[in-house]
Amino acid sequence: MTFITETGAGIDAATSYVSLEEADAHFMALGRDLWSGATSAQRENALNQASLYVDCYAYGGQVLSFDQGLKWPRSGAIDHEGRLLSGLPHALRTAVLELAVTYLENPPSALEARETLKEKIGPIELVYSKTKRQPSFVFRLLLQIGARPASATMMRG
């Protein structure tokens, strides 16, 4: 997969909200040896995966450009205190950094099982959790910029 950093301008085919150089500087300042010990390809992949994760949520407003690769930047999006958001919010970028290092430590499995929270047989009702690994700190960061789980609504025909 290619690695194209979103700058806040609505870049076509962007794959990451944070550049490799920014992430390297961030983790060097924090003394995270795991990050600096990984290859460039592993670090880029972690940033891409983290960006995909935060894009699984629904956000207010509209994408800035319909051709952009990621969900941010957005127009008309507001934070939890009602302020208009522009570019790439700090909470979004911080969430991507937190997830990226987590993905290096413990890569997510595409086949990770969902935990059943509730089942009912007639008239069928199944409720599932997102996954067992939803980082609460990351989710709280994303809540600051209006993130809400993207729901797959099923309608009766």
Note down, in words, how this protein is organized:
This protein has five helices and six strands, in the order αααβββαββαβ. The termini are far apart. The strands form three sheets. It has a two-stranded antiparallel sheet. With 157 residues, it is α+β, with helices and mostly antiparallel strands. The chain is globular, with a radius of gyration of 17 Å. The chain has helices at residues 20-30, 33-37, 40-54, 90-105, 136-143, and strands spanning 57-58, 62-63, 74-75, 116-120, 125-128, 148-149. α3 (40-54) packs across α4 (90-105) and α4 runs antiparallel to α5.
Q: If you average the pLDDT, what whole number results?
A: 86
Q: Structural class given helices, strands, pairing? A: alpha+beta
> Quaternary arrangement of the chains shown?
single chain
The best one-word shape is: globular
How many strand segments? 6
> What count of domains describes the coordinates?
1
Helicity range of the residues? 25-40%
Separation of termini? 39 Å
Rg value? 17 Å
Number of helices: 5
Major β-sheet, in short?
Answer: 2 strands, antiparallel
Element pattern in H and E: HHHEEEHEEHE
Strand percentage = 5-15%
| Strand order in the largest sheet | 1-6
User: Spans of 5+ residues with little confidence (pLDDT < 50)?
Assistant: none
